[in-house]
Amino acid sequence: MIVRIMGEGQIEISPDDIAVLNELDSELEAAIETGDEKVFRVKLHALLDKVRHVGKSLPDDSLEPSELILPPADASIEEVREMLGDQGLIPG
């Protein structure tokens, strides 16, 4: 699966890593629902850090279609709320 972190580039993620990313996504969604900015920031950074850690960055000149688009680390709660689908940022 190819994931784009806005402002950073594309990362290839193994299907085996989706479950742990979904857990972090659920925690992020819960923080958005409560409106807790501090917890939201921690959860957003945890999700993005995990994507960077488990994934393999694609070269900048790679033009693969992204299956998921994640917000940048400095996104606001409202910006991320607008990006949420029925299954959060990461379906599954």
TrEMBL record:
* Top-level taxon of the source organism: Bacteria
Pfam families reported in the protein's UniProt record: PspAA
Which residues belong to any copy of the PspA-associated domain? 1-92
InterPro entries in the cross-refs? PspA-assoc_dom
Q: What is this protein called?
A: PspA-associated domain-containing protein
The organism of origin for this protein: Nonomuraea wenchangensis
The organism's taxonomy opens as: Bacteria, Bacillati, Actinomycetota, Actinomycetes, Streptosporangiales
